[in-house]
Design a protein that fits this description.
There is one protein chain. The protein is an alpha+beta fold. Helix content is 30%, strand content 25%. The protein is built from twelve helices and 23 strands. The strands form six sheets. Strands 1, 2, 7, 8, 9, 10 and 22 form a seven-stranded mixed sheet that branches. Strand 20 and strand 21 form a beta hairpin. Helix 1 packs parallel to helix 5, helix 1 runs parallel beside helix 12 and helix 9 packs across helix 11.
């Protein structure tokens, strides 16, 4: 059985960061990965552009154990991550909302910077090593993989990722964590579209429009965000909708709806006055075009159709009709049955409670020498680089702690 100083399980964002930082303290760092390549999920982030952090890192953009994460986030502002990548030879660019990307807008450049740095510091990589079992032995840890593979390490980092996007991550790390005495909260897909009745969205499949999206349960608004809404076949997505999916954590699915204000810049009275003016100026226009000057044409046509005005003209619409039309545009409500599945999710909500690790080092409070990072933990962020930032911050913190301990291979 091969003996080493530290083993990092998972060559994703947090695992690569942990391996790089741990290797600063000496040799004997081994990175194991169940697939044949590193960073598969990292390559897919941001549609291949890799939104790697944000200039506005703060607990308010996170869900789960955000209060417990606050000290770690304070030590790792976005600028610190940017500086780290600059040292690795990767320049970045920042958009108007604080989202940071590699300057060349390629996730592959981020992976290459990390990968090259790990190779340069002597990190050993073992591919197609699927950890089937891990256990404590003496003052260290044993790992068993397929085909008789085995490792012994003084320190172990679980950086296995979550359940989201199962083609990139299997969620096997949760069982490994349980095996060392950790608990795992309920897991659910997050940063994902919402499922709505197909009959309501089928005619609008592929349409995009600006809106204020509010997730409601009964008469209570759970959260709201403005942005681009994308209509799918039986689903609604877009960044604003996907951010709202985090609000579903722990909720029963009853009486949920997504309420779209499709004319956010206008008060209801202003919109109604605009519609009245249009009807007075163009009385012979078909009613189907009532919202043509307000929103996406197809979306506007579907709203009018839902009001049952087929074949009518502007001149045939009463003041009450226009009041109803304005109210519908300001509050187009679609029932929500829940989030879409794991295949569509970008991140996992839930995981190992942060109270079970020391956020100063990411070391387990259940087992000395064990570290947990990234998506395994009960913290998930909004779109905008917050989840990758969490991966870097936790991975680097764990690796730095191991690096400070130094020492030779066990």
């Amino acid at each position: 059985m091969k003996r080493c100083r530290a083993v990092i399980v998972g060559a994703g964002a947090s695992g690569l960061a942990a391996a790089l930082a741990a290797s600063q303290g000496g040799g004997g760092v081994v990175l194991v990965e169940g697939s044949s390549k590193p960073g598969k999920k990292l390559l897919a982030t941001g549609n291949g552009r890799c939104n790697l952090t944000n200039r506005h890192i703060a607990p308010e953009y996170y869900h789960g154990d955000a209060a417990l994460a606050a000290p770690l986030l304070a030590r790792w502002p976005g600028e610190r991550v940017v500086r780290m990548f600059h040292k690795l030879g990767l320049l970045t660019r920042t958009d108007g909302e604080g989202r940071v990307y590699p300057r060349g807008l390629q996730a592959a450049a981020v992976l290459q910077a990390l990968w090259s740095a790990c190779e340069a510091t002597g990190v050993e990589m073992l591919w197609n090593f699927r950890v089937e079992r891990a256990w404590v032995q003496g003052e260290g840890f044993c790992l068993a993989g397929g085909e008789g593979q085995g490792l012994f390490a003084s320190r172990l980092v679980l950086a296995c990722g979550g359940k989201a996007s199962p083609k990139h991550s299997t969620g096997s790390g949760y069982e490994l964590a349980r095996g060392f005495g950790h608990s795992v909260t309920g897991l659910s897909p997050s940063l994902v579209g919402l499922a709505v009745p197909e009959r309501l969205t089928r005619p609008l499949k592929g349409m995009r429009c600006k809106a204020r999206a509010a997730l409601c349960q009964g008469g209570r608004e759970l959260g709201a965000e403005s942005g681009e809404v994308i209509f799918g076949q039986g689903s609604l997505s877009g960044i604003c909708v996907m951010n709202l999916s985090a609000r579903l954590r722990g909720l029963a699915g009853d009486s949920l709806s997504l309420r779209l204000d499709l004319a956010e810049e206008l008060e209801a009275g202003e919109l109604e006055a605009f519609l009245r003016a249009q009807c007075a100026s163009f009385p012979e226009r078909p009613a189907s075009g009532l919202f043509a000057g307000v929103m996406n044409l197809r979306v506007g046509q579907e709203l009018v159709q839902s009001l049952g005005w087929g074949g009518r003209r502007f001149s045939q619409l009463s003041r009450e009709d226009l009041r109803r039309a304005a109210a519908l545009a300001k509050g187009f409500a679609l029932p929500v049955s829940g989030p879409l599945g794991w295949d569509q999710a970008q991140v996992t909500a839930g995981g190992v409670p942060l109270g079970e690790v020391d956020v100063n080092t990411m070391e387990s409070r259940c087992r000395k020498g064990l570290y947990l990072t990234g998506e395994l933990l009960d913290l998930d962020g909004d779109c905008g680089g917050y989840n990758l930032h969490w991966a870097w911050a936790t991975g680097l913190t764990a690796g730095e702690s191991i690096g400070r301990k130094g020492g030779r291979e066990a």
